[in-house]
Design goal:
It contains 13 helices and 18 strands. By secondary structure, it is an alpha/beta fold. The strands form 5 sheets. The protein has a 5-stranded parallel sheet. The protein has a 5-stranded parallel sheet with strand order 16-15-14-17-18, covered by helices on one side.
Length: 411
């Protein structure tokens, strides 16, 4: 029986052995990432355990959640992140206005590399699997211990292998694939599992699409998610870093606790209806639902591929008079590219509000919903109160679905 990607990555880091699901293993990490909220929390734990210096692990700190700071608490957390970087000499500290949403920035600046392990104080570290990197989200206690000791504890997960075949039809995106899978697999069936995507269908997906897919799988409770790296992934990473890395793909006879095959040709546009990301249905079944707000952005769908899709739909048209549309590019690199391509002008002329790169509207930092309002968003969560009032309703969908909804005033 062959081996999965996670087996090969851990075997390289801690030694080849008979890994068993449910058992605890200690492993080093290649990279750690904290945002302003995570940094502040990690600092408290480091102080509590008496740590005076950090283990030499590559670290990145980016303020991205509440940018620019709108209340004093957010400003204080951002100052703590700056002070932490200065105290410990963290070279990879990115001030606001110079980075964007951390998960995207790590990918586009070459910090995420195939075959490595990246630990972050955020559940959507699963995004890094787009490049074959084992991304794991942790709490501030685990992050503090890792920074102090250089070791992270991992309960070896059960692994679901998903073979992708075929190619997406026009108008269907990776977001629809993720929503389809989340709807089929449910809320509780993948908690602390690992998901690995492989098969001929992988090569038909762009890096942006793979990042969206891995990001969304976090909402099924998975510990991490990996896409088998191919030539496209190798070229993408090599263009962004000169550091050496070792990619791993699953063996043809790799052992998985569960197998699944998905034909991309058969996926249709999907929507997650209130109030969980796994409450997914075909878009046609909720057609006609009126909306008050539309949001295109987040670490799920704020990439250049997403903005191009939305701009192509909005070009020369106006957002419905009863709808407000918020567009948030995921990084300053993407913001600049969208500016150069004229996408921001299209959004502006359509009547949309274009913000700086930030988690912003996704986490309810701005663009809040009033009681009774309805929003359709490209973000990853639609829990009650996520974007404002607990009496508001949030639907999740692809950039195409959201853009059309913004024009027509309904899904």
């Amino acid at each position: 029986m062959g081996h999965s990607m996670i087996y090969k990555i851990l075997a390289k880091k801690i030694g080849d052995q008979d890994f068993k699901a449910g058992e605890i293993y200690m492993t080093p990490a290649d990279l750690v990432f904290t945002h302003e909220v995570g940094t502040a929390g990690t600092m408290r734990v480091l102080d509590k355990i008496g740590a005076t210096e950090l283990y030499p692990i590559e670290m990145v700190i980016i303020s991205d959640h509440f940018v620019p700071a709108s209340i004093l608490t957010h400003a204080i957390n951002q100052k703590k992140a700056r002070d932490f970087a200065k105290k410990y000499g963290i070279r990879n500290y990115f001030e606001i206005g110079r980075a964007g949403i951390g998960h995207q920035v790590l990918i586009e600046k070459g910090f995420i590399r195939p075959g490595e392990i990246a630990i972050a104080t955020d559940a959507h570290a699963t995004t890094y699997g787009a490049l074959g990197c084992l991304g794991i989200g942790v709490g501030v206690t685990d992050m503090a211990v890792l920074l102090a000791s250089g070791q992270y504890w991992l309960k070896y997960p059960k692994v679901l292998g998903i073979r992708l075949e075929g190619k997406l039809r026009p108008g269907v995106s990776a977001k629809d694939v993720a929503l389809k899978l989340l709807g089929d697999l449910g809320t509780d069936n993948l908690i602390y599992w690992m998901v690995e995507f492989y098969g001929s269908g992988v090569s038909t997906l762009s890096i942006d699409s793979r990042a969206c897919l891995c990001n969304m799988m976090s909402e099924g409770g998975v510990k991490s998610c990996l896409v088998a790296p191919d030539n496209l992934a190798m070229e993408y990473v090599s263009a962004r870093t000169d550091k050496k890395f070792t990619p791993f793909v699953p063996d043809e006879d790799a052992y998985y606790d569960k197998y699944l095959t998905l034909d991309l040709d058969k996926v249709e546009p999907m929507v997650a209806i209130p109030d969980t990301p796994t409450n997914c249905v075909p878009r046609k079944s909720v057609s006609g639902v009126e909306i008050d707000q539309a949001f295109i952005g987040s670490c799920t769908n704020g990439r250049i591929e997403d903005l191009r899709i939305a701009a192509a739909i909005l070009k020369g048209k106006k957002v419905h008079p009863n709808v407000r549309l918020i567009v948030s590019p995921a990084s300053h690199e993407i913001w600049q590219q969208a500016l150069n391509e004229g996408l921001l002008t299209i959004f502006n002329q359509s009547g949309a509000v274009v913000t700086n790169p930030t988690c912003g509207a996704c986490i309810g930092a701005h663009g809040l919903l009033a009681p009774g309002e309805v929003c359709i968003a490209t973000s990853n969560r639609n829990f009650k109160g996520r974007m404002g009032s607990i009496d508001a309703k949030i639907y999740l969908a692809s950039p195409e679905t959201v853009a059309y909804a913004a024009l027509t005033g309904r899904i």
